[in-house]
Amino acid sequence: MYQAIPYNASRAWPAAGSPPAAVTAAAPGGEEEVRRAVAECPVVVVGRSGCCLSHVVKRLLQGLGVNPAVHEVAGEAELAGVVADGDVALPAVFVGGRLLGGLDRLMAVHISGELVPILKEAGALWL
């Protein structure tokens, strides 16, 4: 049986130059924090706190050897300014500063065999 990954909402978003934290707490001005995280980290998962789909995304990426930065938001409104078309569903996966998509798109890219090269190009994998 798998053990749950411990959750700690009190950890703050890392300052510039420090390694990304595994989990962050939602805060006012979340759109700007999401934009900064996407720019700084090779892989960012944006989802709601306790969302099972976010957990699946994180586990898939961790299974491939990627340690994604995770940002928890209250809703899709915090992503509206980050994504050009504004039509995004949570969890949202950003790879190399660009929106890859949600869980369905991530799974499709993984099954087709395109995910690992995308992750390598973004600098998230060194295999």
From TrEMBL:
Pfam families associated with the record: Glutaredoxin (PF00462)
Cellular component, GO annotation: cytoplasm
Location within or outside the cell: Cytoplasm
Domain of life of the source: Eukaryota
Domain (Glutaredoxin): residue spans on this chain: 43-99
SUPFAM superfamilies from the UniProt entry: Thioredoxin-like
Keywords: Cytoplasm, Redox-active center
Coiled-coil ranges per UniProt: none
PANTHER family: GLUTAREDOXIN
UniProt similarity note: Belongs to the glutaredoxin family. CC-type subfamily.
NCBIfam families linked: GlrX-like_plant (TIGR02189)
Protein name: Glutaredoxin domain-containing protein
